[in-house]
Design a protein that fits this description.
mainly alpha, 7 helices
């Protein structure tokens, strides 16, 4: 499809790049958790998974500016009064299509905390076998702070956000009868509203691939900076 099209029934909400980002992030996070628990010889892979997550996050930030309609941050940045109205049950019907006001807070919190966790990992040093690629470029006090946050604080915050995320999916599935997972697999939602459909054609997918490659190269340059 060329541009943003209006559709009244089946709407392409999540374009392919957004869906690939989502599931690739899930896989990379699973790798990070697993290698962190194993430690030792698994730490090189822990760093590789971390670099993958950073590349994905940078891509998502850029895609939030130029991606499909419902993937753009502009489609789910809500004013405080809108969030309050939603909490009081006075939400806009269109909120049910993409990220609703509460869902948007979860997305931004997850992106922000993941960036902070990966960033702190780049500057962490356990003084045993693993040191981030930027350790030699920052003051020792920053390294200590980053190490403490990465190992003892950030991972707990992320665990809480992940539990909240999964709990919300289960709540919507079993209490509200809305499956949030399927649209993130096939991309479409059924709605009675006439709303724009996200662009998801060959050109947009090629653009996404080029952007992601650029993010990978940027991360590669970053980790080689030491």
């Amino acid at each position: 499809m060329e541009g943003e099209e209006l559709m009244s029934n089946t709407v392409r909400v999540w374009d392919l790049p957004t869906r690939v980002f989502h599931w690739a992030l899930v896989a990379a996070l699973a790798g990070l958790v697993t290698t962190a628990q194993i430690g030792g010889e698994a730490m090189p892979w822990h760093f590789r998974f971390g670099y993958t997550v950073l590349s994905l996050l940078l891509f998502r930030v850029v895609w939030g500016l130029v991606g499909g309609h419902w993937s753009r941050f502009a489609s789910f940045i809500y004013a405080p009064r809108t969030i309050l109205a939603y909490l009081k049950g006075r939400g806009n019907p269109e909120h049910a299509v993409g990220h609703n006001p509460l869902g948007s807070l979860s997305v931004f919190a997850m992106l922000g905390m993941l960036l902070l966790q990966v960033g702190s990992g780049l500057c962490s040093d356990d003084e045993i076998a693993a040191a981030g690629p930027l350790v030699t470029l920052v003051p020792g006090a920053w390294v200590s702070l980053a190490t403490h946050y990465h190992a003892d604080i950030g991972k707990l915050i992320l665990l809480g956000l992940l539990v909240l995320h999964v709990g919300t999916i289960l709540f919507y599935r079993f209490k509200k009868g809305e499956d949030l997972v399927k649209p993130m697999v096939h991309g479409d939602k059924e709605t009675a509203l006439t709303v724009p459909s996200s662009r998801d054609d060959a050109k947009s997918r090629l653009l996404a691939a080029a952007l992601f490659l650029g993010c990978v190269l940027l991360v590669a340059c970053l980790v080689q900076a030491r």
